[in-house]
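Quick look at the format.
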Amino acid sequence: MGRRRGIMSERFKEEIAKDLGFYEVVQKEGWGGIRARDAGNMVKRAIELAEQQIAGRDPQ
């Protein structure tokens, strides 16, 4: 089986990484350089934003 394509766009992932404060690591080492905790927090934040959008609220 091949790798699944990501659901989140690169731009969206970068914005979340900036928001959570580890974008510098992504720039230096790529996505493989982030900690598992940061990846989990990134997913959690993306879910929060999606839920806010579904609820019709502004995510900002």
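Next, a different chain entirely:
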Amino acid sequence: MFIGPKGALLRRSGFRRIWNKVREDVGLPSLHLHDLRHVGNTLAAANAASLKELMTRMGHASTRAALIYQHEAQDRDRAIAQALGKAFKVARDGHKDEAPGTQRARKI
């Protein structure tokens, strides 16, 4: 996620010193690395990342932790409902001369 001053990956042993300096330099002395992780995964969830994608990003094997980040995605309900409404309208308009979906499916 971060590179060192010479462009290489940071070693675990030197990370804290560099992290603390950067936080001070940008005026965020109380920002924790976990805060960035939470924001990043919350934004990913709000931008339609699947549960599996969140699990992969976080390195978790269970859905329990990934579900924590889904709470912020609840405001997407309106956008999802609108998108479904548009999709249903397109499907309906494309099949006006046919039987309704359930009746059409039964014929298959």
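The mean pLDDT is 80.

See the schema section for token definitions.
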